[in-house]
Every structure is written in C-alpha cells, then in structure tokens.
Amino acid sequence: MTERRTEIRTRLNITGIILADEHRTMPCIVSDRSASGIRVTLPCADELPDAFILTVDETGEALVCRAAWRKSDQIGCTADALMTAWLAQPALRRQPAWTKAT
To answer: Do the Cβ atoms of 76 and 47 come closer than 8 Å?
Structure first.
C-alpha cells in the first residue's frame, strides 16, 4: 500500500473524551496524530456529528475537530482550534489571607 500522507504521524494509544453536543460525551482512544490530523477510535464513529470537541486525557488538550473521513469504529479529523491555554494556566485568583502559611 502506498503511503499518501505528507506528514509524519505518531502512533498513540491514549484515552480521551468526545463532546458530541451539550448532552452527549463518548470515551475514545486517540490512535495516532500528525501536525494536521488525528485518528480516533470509538465504537460508534458513525453517530458523531461533523464537528465536535475532543479532550485528550494525557495532555489536557481540548481540540475543536472536524471530520475528514469515517469508518464504523474510527474517525479521522482535523483540529480547527487548540484550546489549551486556559487548561494550563494556574488560577489567577489571590489566595485568601487565612489560607497562607505563617
């Protein structure tokens, strides 16, 4: 089989959660990733909408994804936007005086 990808992909086996809409979440496995795409494995890929949010447990990333292709148990998608800044930021609130060690 001829490789058609222009970018190197990294094989992964890490868990994630897909937020399909405001009422449905689905556990999944992030199977591989490249600079422009992600392959996700889950039992019901054909039930996903064309756009969804994927959170990756290991990295704390939240990606807004668009479906590029589908199989019954896999979906290939592109990440439209990366929303990790707010996940990595420490709380900006000041600590109350009573919680500070003396």
So the answer is: no
Which sign does the torsion angle of CA 5, 11, 13, 14 carry?
negative
Contact between residue 38 and residue 65 where contact means Cβ atoms under 8 Å apart: yes
Cα–Cα distance measured from residue 74 to residue 77, given in angstroms and rounded to the nearest whole number: 10
Confirm whether 3 is domain-assigned.
Answer: no
Q: What is the pTM of this model?
A: 0.72
Residue 63 lies in a domain: yes
Helix (H) or strand (E) holding 26: strand 24-33
Q: pLDDT at residue 91 above 60? A: no
pLDDT tens for 76-87 read 999 865 554 444
Domain span holding position 34: 18-86
